[in-house]
Each structure stands twice: as C-alpha cells, then as structure tokens.
Design brief:
heterodimer; A: 111 residues; mainly beta; 0% helix; 55% strand; B: mainly beta; seven-stranded mixed beta sheet
Chain lengths: 111, 114
Amino acid sequence: QKEVEQNSGPLSVPEGAIASLNCTYSDRGSQSFFWYRQYSGKSPELIMSIYSNGDKEDGRFTAQLNKASQYVSLLIRDSQPSDSATYLCAAIYNQGGKLIFGQGTELSVKP
Amino acid sequence: DAGVTQSPTHLIKTRGQQVTLRCSPKSGHDTVSWYQQALGQGPQFIFQYYEEEERQRGNFPDRFSGHQFPNYSSELNVNALLLGDSALYLCASSGTGAYGNTIYFGEGSWLTVV
C-alpha cells in the first residue's frame, strides 16, 4: 500500500516567518513529488514539483527531497497571510501514474 | 489557453439517483484522471483515462464509471448515489512527452447527496 503522510495541522506561523511543511512516503519507487496549495472551497493548485534529491527553489518556495529518508518538505519564506491554506503533498510512482496524496496540512499565517 | 474545465460546479442529488460530471482537459493534454475529495481529506484517485481506455483504477466500486471521448474530454458517472458520495470531484489532466508528470486540476464539481 503506497502511502503519503503529512504533519497533522494546523500549523500557525507569524507573518514574515518561515513555514516548514513536511511529508513522508512509503514507496521507495515513487519518482516524482508535488506540493499543491488548496484554499478553502477551491481545487488544489500546483505550486512545486521535485524529482531529484536536493533543493528546488521558486520564489519564496523551496522544495526539498531526500529519497534515502523518503522525505519531502516545503519551505515558505516570508510567509504572508495569503499563504494561509491547506498544503497537500503528493507522490507519483511512475510517469503517467496516479497521484497519491497526504491528508494535507493546514497553514495559518497570522498578521 | 484554457485550463482544465469541469461542469457542473455544484449539484445536489437524492440518494439512489445517478450523476454525470464532465471534464475538458488542458490544451495539449491527453490523459484525464478523476479524484474524490471528502471534507478534510486529501484527494483519492478514482480512475484514469488515456486513449479512450480506462488505464488505472483506484479502490472505488463499480458504481463509479467513466468515459473518454476522442477529443480527450471525459465523463464520470456515479450510479445509485449514497450519502457518502458527497464530496468534491476533481478532474486532473496531464500529458505525455514534454508535459511529463505535470498534473493540473480543474475547479471541481461539488456533489451533495441528500
């Protein structure tokens, strides 16, 4: 059974701080990893994808992947109230395959 | 360039009824997947269509069925609706080649079963 686990939320950080979201996965064969942001009542929006070990940066977002530890993380620098949402971690086992999601971590950024 | 479009956005059905949800993939994408997201949970994979065939299926009963048309659009049908089928139904599109594993979601269809 392929599983993706995320930190239970909610996670609360002050405005301007770094928010750290974590995710582990059970299947070592998983190839690709994604972070989606989902605002209440809306559909998931892709914000980062990562395929190789190491860091990948895009603006205020940094995704980190450690395949040996089966661990994926998302750092949000200079957090803003508009970042308040549920963040979903997802893994895909093979190209063209299905996404396996974690349960999501709710992030709250306080002004 | 239109993204993934879904219809209807909201609907209410009665237990035992049938529902059809529709999806048009992002331009250039040929693969459509459907997910069910219950409140407070991550999306769960229902099935995936490619070249008008069901390529993969998740742990959903046969009441859930689908179809893909030659223009890559897709339908999700749910028969004999149960209260537990109330959820956000998401369509995701992806492509082969240059599109790789990039997967985009539509705005979803909110289904309420009463």
